[in-house]
Structure formats: C-alpha cells, structure tokens
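Moderator note: this is an archived Q&A kept for reference. The question asked for a predicted structure of one protein chain; the sequence and the answer are reproduced below.
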Amino acid sequence: MNNFQSKILKALKTNKFNPARLGERKWYNYFISVDELIWARNFVDGYLIDIYSDEYKTEHLATYALTYNVFERIDILQINYERD
C-alpha cells in the first residue's frame, strides 16, 4: 500500500475525508477531484478520486475508485492509475 492509499483510508476511518462532498478541493498538500460512480439509476456505487500535485493541476499523481463492501462493511480503494 502506498502513501496515497494509506492516507485516504486513514482519513476515511477518522472521518477527515468525506467522499460524498463532490467536486474539487484542496486536501493536505494536494488538489483532489471527487466524482460519483453511478452504474444504475439512483444508486451510487462509489466515488472516483483524482489526485493532482497542486491547485493548478500541473501533475496528475493518481486516480482511485472508492467502493464499499456491504457484506464485510469495509471501504475498498482500487487503483485505476498511479504515477511511478
């Protein structure tokens, strides 16, 4: 697990990151964009989180898909893109 993954999961557990708050915003020293992932009508399947280096979006650092496993009651953070 890398730095971004651990930081996002820790912030979710401590309620310092609310993915339901959509849009773009500054988060720690990064700039993030959060969008809903909707696969069926009126049903949110998760959130797409894009992480950029600063508010000017000069460098795209990572993209994650955040979903919730109802049966195990845990957040799952899948890596869609991650800069090396």
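Archived answer notes: Residues 21 and 34 are 8 Å apart (CA to CA).
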